[in-house]
Amino acid sequence: MISIDEAQSRILERTWTKGAVRVPTSRAVGAALAAGVASDVDSPPHDKSLLDGYAIVSADVRGGAVELRVIAEIAAGVVPQCEVRSGSAAQIMTGAPLPRGADAVVMLEHTTRLEYPDAPRIRVDVDRVAAGDGIMRRGTSIQRGTCVLNAGHVVRPIDVGLLCEVGHTQVDVTGPVHVAVLATGNELVPAEQIPGAGMIRNSNGPMLRALARDLLCQVTDLGICGDEIGALQRSIRRGLGNDVLLLSGGVSAGVLDLVPKVLEDLGVERVFHKVHLKPGKPLWFGVCHAGSSRTLVFGLPGNPVGCLVCFELFVGPALRKLRGLGTVTPAIRSATLADGYCHRSDRPTYVPAVASHLEDHRLVAVPLAWAGSADQRAVGAANCLVLFPAGERVFAAGDQVPLLLLGPIPPAG
To answer: Which tens digit of pLDDT belongs to each residue from 2-20?
Structure first.
């Protein structure tokens, strides 16, 4: 039996990052960039107006209203041919290039249009305009050659606009991760079926598929397989064509816990079996090599909370590394216990809990009453798992404990 840290280390040592594929930028949302993206232009590409108004010489406006002659109108997308000198102004639209000579833009609402026979004028109705007002200088946002998104960044919808602005209508992202899920056990029936005597519904299979899809993996459902060597061999062979094969059940020490033997008979190299952890002790992990391809194989506990804990601690990091994400290990936070808690276990134990923020921004956690690794209702009510160390100890309210987040934490109040 190995420690949690050692298990994570052995898994990630054997996990690779998928190769790059080129996709249209509009279809890259949710994928991780395989390489950094640099801009081929300055942004903005010219000094531009940030508002509708008049381009002026700021020194003309000092300590009182002033009238300026309007010499041109400049729309966005038009290169100005005029030069603004002292005593003149050019009407300008938002986003339009700044004309030569102007060093500020006064907004339309701060001016009054005056019609004269020779040429229109404006009266500036503010006492002072500073150089640079209403202007965004060339390259303020992005300079040509600047890396705007780094490798490992997960593309968001807002990033699509940025990528197009810097000329990348196609990007290289890490390829899709293919995950197969197989639930094992003679006692399992499909979730839509009413269980007979001695039977239970298959909940681990759907949960694992949902967890993998939540990490944007492409998932294959291998269904349910009974505890029979021939059937297990056939089902597992189908799963070994994927990047990752997740099995639930059949990895403990019972007479019908046949998964480890079948995996090794099929040539899957065992890396470890059993982790010093509760729930989740029976975890089995190995790697199947077939030519140049590899498959990571996880034999997860049949009990649903143990299955979930092992996914969060071990499977999730591997899937994130395969996807090329910058951070792969689960985020561990520190929280204050809201109430006292009595703990006794021979192994480090993850207990379902509810975490929330106090008004002073401290994170507090309340462990939930639960009946062990088969109690899905308790873990369904949790938004985190609190880690208690091995041994016997009474924790007091106010003690600090590490926790693993399962969902969002509600704000204070």
So the answer is: 999 999 999 999 999 999 9
Tens of pLDDT, residue by residue over 319-376, are 999 999 877 888 889 999 999 999 999 999 999 999 999 878 889 999 999 988 889 8
Question: Furthest-apart CA pair in the chain: how many Å?
Answer: 103
Question: Which residue intervals of 148-194 are DSSP H helices?
Answer: 157-165
| Domains with residue ranges and CATH for the chain | 4-17+176-322 (3.40.980.10), 20-43+141-174 (3.90.105.10), 48-136 (2.170.190.11), 332-405 (2.40.340.10)
- For residues 55 and 39, give the distance between their C-alpha atoms in angstroms, rounded to a whole number: 29
Per-residue confidence band for 255, with pLDDT thresholds at 50, 70 and 90? low
- CA dist., res. 413 & res. 411, Å (int): 6
Please state, as a whole number, how many other Cβ atoms lie within 10 Å of the Cβ of residue 181.
26
Enter the pTM of the model. Answer: 0.84
For 265, half-sphere exposure in the C-beta direction (CA atoms, 13 angstrom radius) is 12
Exposure string (b/e) for 96-114, b if CB count within 10 Å is 16 or more?
bbbbebbbbbbbeebbeee
* Predicted local confidence at residue 157, as pLDDT: 96
What percentage of the chain reaches a pLDDT higher than 70? 99
Using CA atoms in the order 88, 91, 95, 100, what is the torsion angle rounded to 10 degrees?
-20
Give the whole-angstrom CA distance, residue 329 versus residue 313: 8
Instruction: Map residue 25 onto helix, strand or coil.
Output: helix
Give phi and psi for 142, each to the nearest 5.
-140, 135
The gap between the terminal CA atoms of the chain, to the nearest Å, is 44
